Amino acid sequence: MKKILIQLDTDALPSTFDRVVAVDAGVDELFSYGGVTPENVETLVHGAIFTRKPSDLMNTAIFVGGSNVAAGETLLKAVKKSLFGPFKVSVMMDSNGSNTTAAATVIAAARHLDLSNTTALVLAGTGPVGCRVAQLLISQGATVRLASRSIDRSTATCEMLSKVVNGAKLMPHESQTEGGLTAACQGVDLVVAAGAAKTQLINTDQLKGISTLKLAIDLNAVAPAGIDGVEVMDKAKDRFGFLSYGAVGVGGTKMKIHLAAVQSLFLANDRVLDTAAIFELGRSLS
C-alpha cells in the first residue's frame, strides 16, 4: 500500500522546502494544500481517515507546516480534534522548521556541554525557534535566561514554558539595552541566537566579555550574523576561546531529523510529533 503524506500549510502556497523533504523521505504520494485553517481542516482530515480501513491508516500521515508557527500550533490542535477512535493517522507539526531546528540546536549543544549543569542565554527567546530551544534546554535540566527586547514578552514566555516543563529553571531578561544584555550574559556557558534574519543580537566585544562562555550557536543564515564573529558554516569551530556553530553547521542535523521524522510517521497511526517528540527522535539518531 502506498504511503501518502498530506501537507496542510497555513500559507496560501504550500512550502516547496517541506515538499522536497517529503519526497526525499520516500513518501509515495504527496497531497499539498495551502490556506488551511482550523475552520476548513476537518473535511481534509476526514477524507484522509475514512478512505482506508483502520489497520491500513499507518500508511497515511499528516504534516502541518507554514511560516506562521502560532497558526501551525492552532491547526495542529484542530487536526488532533478531528481524529477519533480507531480513525487516526500520525501527525507532525514543523511550521517554519521551528521544531526540527530547535531539536538540532540542543543536540549540538549537548555534544559539548552537560546540559544539566549549563547556564544558557537564549537571545530572541520569545520567537518561535528561541522559545522551543528554551523549552528543550530546560527539559534537560539547563538553567535558561530567556532574553527579548521586551521584558514583558520575556516574562510571559517564561510563564508559559514553566507550565510546559515542570521544575523549569528559567529567568526573563531584556536585551534591548546594553546594560540588560550585559546582565543576561554574566556567567553563561552557552549563547544561542534565534532571531530574525539580518538581525545582529550580540557583537564581538560583548561576546568576548563573557569569560565563562564555552559555546555559541547562531541560527541566522543571512548576514549580518546574529552573533557577530560566528560564521554560517561554523561547526564546532574554535573562535575567541569558545566553540561556535552557524546555521549551516546546525542545519545538517536539522535535515536528518526532518527526514527521519517524516519516515517515522508511517511506523504507526497514532504518533504526534511536536517539539518534545521531535527532540527525542533526534536524540535517538545521535
What are its keywords?
12 strands; 10 helices; seven-stranded mixed sheet; 286 residues; Rossmann fold; five-stranded parallel sheet
Q: How do the strands line up in the largest sheet?
A: 7-6-5-8-9-11-10
Largest sheet: number of strands, sense, barrel closure: 7 strands, mixed
Number of domains: 2
Helix vs. strand class: alpha/beta
CATH topology of the largest domain: Rossmann fold
State mean pLDDT (0 to 100 scale). 96
Report the principal-axis shape. elongated
Number of helices: 10
**Rg from alpha-carbon coordinates:** 19 Å
Helix content: 25-40%
Question: How would you portray this structure in words?
Answer:
With 286 residues, the chain is α/β, with parallel strands linked by helices. The protein folds into 2 domains: 4-93, Rossmann fold (3-Layer(aba) Sandwich); 98-250, Rossmann fold (3-Layer(aba) Sandwich), CATH 3.40.50.720. The protein has 10 helices and 12 strands. The chain has helices at 16-24, 41-49, 69-82, 98-110, 128-139, 151-164, 178-185, 204-208, 247-264, 275-285; strands at 4-9, 29-33, 60-65, 90-93, 119-123, 143-148, 169-174, 190-193, 215-218, 235-239, 242-245, 272-273. It has a 7-stranded mixed beta sheet with strand order 7-6-5-8-9-11-10, sandwiched between helices. The chain has a 5-stranded parallel beta sheet with strand order 2-1-3-4-12, with helices on both faces. Strand 6, helix 6 (151-164) and strand 7 form a beta-alpha-beta unit. The longest helix is centred in the C-terminal third of the chain and has 18 residues, at 247-264. The model has no long low-confidence stretch (mean pLDDT 96).
